[in-house]
Design brief:
The protein is built from 8 helices and 11 strands. It is α/β, with parallel strands linked by helices and 222 residues long.
Length: 222
């Protein structure tokens, strides 16, 4: 999953970005509203974490401009203001969630996970594809009841395919959602990641190649 963090407090921004990357997320960071708006308009994010009090352009203005242009990315507002009217103002401007500073990183992560699931119409943290079970809350994977150990980026790839199970997901979509920067068009990083994931998931194969189009996660080989 790909997340944009727009926060002017450098230490907090770096802490959030580092924490999300350790969890397997692809993350971009911006230090002011104008830069954040540029990032949000130039890339496809699953979630934007947006501080309200920002230099250059405040967070609510960034949010309104995104919604005016039809951008439907889920937005989580961060703010030091905890008055009811502040929360209402943010939600009415088009925010999907709201978190008051200071906050526990675990709560921020849980809210981001929930917004990612919501984007793909998945309300439950549990995803099943045949005998494969993925718990998006604990990031645990089992197949036929046996646990499978995955590295954070491997898990992120599997989760993305699972959230779009049955759909053909292109190589470029995987690159855009799982890497902080676009992969080299000549690189085989995605193909290598798919190969490793297939090996760890075992047989029968559950990730299928649609030559010239991409990959699909499905219990049905056809």
């Amino acid at each position: 999953m790909k997340v944009l963090v727009v926060e002017d407090a450098r230490h907090l921004r770096q802490a959030i970005v580092s924490g999300l990357r350790r969890g397997g997320y692809a993350v971009d960071g911006a230090g002011d509203g104008a830069e954040g708006l540029w990032f949000a308009e130039s890339n496809d994010y699953d979630v934007v974490v947006l501080d309200i009090m920002l230099p250059e352009m405040d967070g609510l203005t960034v949010l309104r401009r995104l919604r005016e242009k039809g951008n439907r990315t889920h937005v989580l507002l961060l703010t030091a203001k905890d008055a009811v009217e502040d929360r209402v103002r943010g939600l009415q401007a088009g925010a999907d969630d709201y978190l008051v500073k200071p906050f526990a990183f675990a709560e921020l992560l849980a809210r981001i996970q929930a917004l990612c699931r919501r984007r793909y119409g998945q309300k439950s943290p549990l995803i099943s594809v045949g005998d494969l079970e993925i718990d998006t809350a604990s990031k645990m994977v089992r197949r036929a009841g046996a646990p499978i150990e995955l590295k954070p980026r491997e898990y992120a790839l599997l989760e993305y395919l699972a959230l779009r199970q049955g759909e053909v997901v292109s190589r470029s979509e995987i690159e855009a959602h799982l890497y902080d920067e676009q992969a080299d068009p000549m690189s085989n990083v995605v193909d290598s990641a798919i190969c490793t994931l297939r090996r760890k998931l075992g047989t029968p194969p559950i990730i299928h190649t649609r030559h010239g189009h991409g990959y699909v996660l499905s219990a049905d080989a056809t």
